[in-house]
Amino acid sequence: MSKYCILIHYHEISIKGGNRTWFERHFEDNVRLHLKSLPFETITTSSARVYVFGIDVERWNEYSKILTEVMGLSNATLMHQQKAELETIKIAAQEMILRSGKEFENFRVSARRQYKTFPMTSGELNVEVGAYIQPIVNKPVKLKGAGLEIYIEIVKGMAYVGVDRISGHGGLPVGVSETAVSLLSSGIDSPVSSFEMIKRGVDLTYVHFHSAPSTSRQSIKNVKKLLKILARYQLSCPLHLIPLLEIQQKIMSESHDKYWVLLFRRAMIRLSCMIAEKIDAPVLISGESVGQVASQTLSNIRATADVGDRPILRPLAGMNKEEIITRAKIIGTYEVSIEPYQDCCSFFVPAHPETKARLNIIQNVEERIQFGDLFEKAISAGEFEIISIN
Ligand code: ATP
Ligand code: MG
Fold first, then answer.
1. With pLDDT > 70 as the criterion, what percentage of the chain qualifies?
2. CATH class, 179-388 region
């Protein structure tokens, strides 16, 4: 067995009490699936840590990049594994500094001790290892904001020593929090709202509405590209592509243009609830943020939401555009979201859409539209595919 391994700490799972084993199993399975394309021998969970053994240490950069995309991960460290003895720990620390090739002006040692029969406290270990390393690297110790941190973990008679650590997004492992239907446009916001829910462990099914052939199929291509990115976090993203054009044409022929956008939105919610019903998803997710555009006033949010039989979660409700863009860049969706496309709503949008819709007026207008079986038709004309990480 290689003396190197990756030691992973998860984020919130440990607080889940009785469900802990179940959460751990999800997390461990997800780590295994994410690392599928890289060599490893075993992945095991013990003492609230996940260990990846039998890795190719030369490919740490590849492992670490992928691991940042595993939801629920707090941090992952490339470790040298050996018996928990002071002398071997010192030598391992020296070796790991050398192999990382890191440049630094000062350092610190951060030991954690799960194995309480180890004869030294964490503090004593920090001092001993620090005193050994200091003359070798000829750099001072600095406790706050050190340029290099040497991590030592003593667990079950073994010591793990490393300096290369990455942080993840935290949250919960995908798959522990039921499913939801996420309304995905190819804009900036909805990929971010989807990500925030993936991070809460929710397994999302996506729905995208398009107006082809009146608009080009570009938005569909963009949505698939976005899901290729979100699949890095979710692994597998089911997508429903639903044609909205006939319903939109009906709305446009039978109502005043100032209500169109709201009625389109209500149609989207109604169709999304039909999909949610089929897959037994308790909620919908949307990327609305209050006041961001004229259609996202509180009154309009109310006027669109009452149509469905499911709550709509809006993870971005209180964020401003700048914050959302920053998130989109971190997640990696921003570049695709700013590619041009014809939005199914804005393509037909009138000059003065309703910004403070009265719920009862919208309901009255909608009631008079003869939709017939257009909703069922749209659902059965939908295309479905699963977009996966590989
Ligand atoms: P986004 O950047 O997500 O497109 P936006 O600021 O452009 O959001 P709107 O166009 O008003 O806002 O859409 C609000 C929300 O409605 C979107 O975040 C998304 O969840 C949903 N939505 C809008 N258009 C579509 C669509 N064509 N398909 C699926 N969902 C959509
Ligand atoms: Mg949009």
1. 96
2. alpha beta
